[in-house]
Amino acid sequence: MPVGTVGSVKAISPDELRDDIKAQIILGNTYHLYLRPGHKIIEKAGGLQKFTNWNKPMLTDSGGFQVMSLSGLRKITREGVRFQSHLDGSYHMFTPERVMEIQNAIGADIIMSFDECPPYPASKDYIAKSLDVTLEWAERGLEAHNRPEEQALFGIVQGGVHEDLRRKSAEALIKLDFPGYSIGGLAVGEKKEDMYRITSFLNNILPEHKPRYLMGVGTPGNLLENIRNGVDMFDCVMPTRNARKGSIFTRHGKLIIKSARYEEDFTPIDPECNCYACRNFSRAYIRHLIKMQEILGMRLTSLHSLHFYLELMGMARQAIFDDKYEEFANDMVPVLESIVDHI
Amino acid sequence: MPVGTVGSVKAISPDELRDDIKAQIILGNTYHLYLRPGHKIIEKAGGLQKFTNWNKPMLTDSGGFQVMSLSGLRKITREGVRFQSHLDGSYHMFTPERVMEIQNAIGADIIMSFDECPPYPASKDYIAKSLDVTLEWAERGLEAHNRPEEQALFGIVQGGVHEDLRRKSAEALIKLDFPGYSIGGLAVGEKKEDMYRITSFLNNILPEHKPRYLMGVGTPGNLLENIRNGVDMFDCVMPTRNARKGSIFTRHGKLIIKSARYEEDFTPIDPECNCYACRNFSRAYIRHLIKMQEILGMRLTSLHSLHFYLELMGMARQAIFDDKYEEFANDMVPVLESIVDHI
Questions:
Q1: Is position B61 annotated as part of the catalytic site?
Q2: Which CATH homologous superfamily contains domain B14-236?
Q3: What is the pTM of this model?
Q4: CA nearest B300 in A: which residue?
Q5: B287: nearest CA partner in chain A
Q6: In terms of CATH architecture, what is A14-235?
């Protein structure tokens, strides 16, 4: 899922997302949308899809991750989290009920329980206590959810890198019978081996017939490794954020477009790629645009990287259908994690 | 002509320029393109059109205006101008011959003589001496132009706000028989009445059957007033630059999208406008994007403002054909110069 933090996938239009990138669903951040423009305005517009002119599925997160990142500006109690806006310092309170009210107003198709995402590293004791609160919040959110027929509410599995806590979390949420399960609290600084260990561990616990969403992950290699472990859905700002700085994802690895080697390279980013950037522009031109901080440069690199991410997911899906996923992932991951040497 | 300073009309793709904005020609700045990516790279790419994937006409300016704006970083002699790059302080020399070599390499369809654009205000004595040099440079450029069959070289009329100097400049250039004439040295700080007086004065001197290009102008009202005075071509960064900050040009005047009045306004920027922004997005959404400094916001406002500028030029052309131009301009100018009150 491309990430549209405040209601726009950065640099990209909804038409490009639909026609070129072929995104099926995009994500909005509850915390950001609540602050600006405010969920009441989005509700008056007829929901986030109408407001942003995106006519396909959408998902909102719970705000938990963003609120927890405001260290020093927030206070956690059993009731909820009191925090100060990073924009203007104003005080706000998120509770499971409030977050549900906000997400009901924003109106995405898939919404998230309010959770505490503990920092990394944190003591196991802290994570265990935090988990108890998050499980209570999951129940309260489920209770408060006003549009269950229209919006699928996912529970968020927490528990850090501890398998016993992850099991406890997953089993408690499964009892509440959510239509899907998110895996939170990963990609927060732990080693990627720990991330893979936890998704692999949860693969045997989470129900097979319901979607599993790994929040905030990751590199193309991370995606393939976690698909191996049964994950179905991902979101990450990486393709767009890195692209704006000129680090472009391709099937041959990362292409650092500012490199002098591309100064007079009049071939596309990826000659085999079918995106608007690769069909129309050269590395030399895109390099020049990125160096000059031209918006068109950020548009083209973001477009390509998102196109590639979605295409990679299509390839993974096909490999699963063809029963060749392990081979596919084993071949691709090392290439994806390299710097492009020659295409 | 939308302005593509370093080879990109800011925030806009060539497809949008062609299909939505319906631009017939765009401009590149010789000074900027010479510094980055360098005219040699553009030449290797096959010219600026190929480099930027713009398959319609293009114009480059002479670099004179930009170089003169580097006050303190430049030294003018009869030979040319020695200056320091605003990017890295490196030393460079522009002469009429060098500027022609650069523009021949860049390869635009219409190119400009190297000129001195005196600051405003300047003494009449200074402007007269500067004009003599500029006329010498025009001859030298004409001589040095290597692709006259492919690139139309325009002479630039200078002379400040002084009619006798403007006459001298225009008559000398007319003798050199350029395929078109530019009017430089206006919109540099003088009153708009002085600008209109000079274009009106030149209207009787410049040959009717050759294009007249007023450089660096201006607001929609400026355009209509100068069309009255026989000007055929304009370029200005105003539609895009102002749009990125949320000041949007419409047929009803300037719309300041950040205004609180648009917070819950779910109508388009201009309900009668046919551009991508107006067909798909509301003022409330665009306001939110611009306030959040989202790239999509800058894309949409830039797209609309350029679409409007080109549409306004089409309306002016039609009014001329219909022999109703004076009435059209008299009606439109006061509206265009107002702030939108209600659409």
A1: yes
A2: Queuine tRNA-ribosyltransferase-like (3.20.20.105)
A3: 0.98
A4: A13
A5: A37
A6: Alpha-Beta Barrel (3.20)
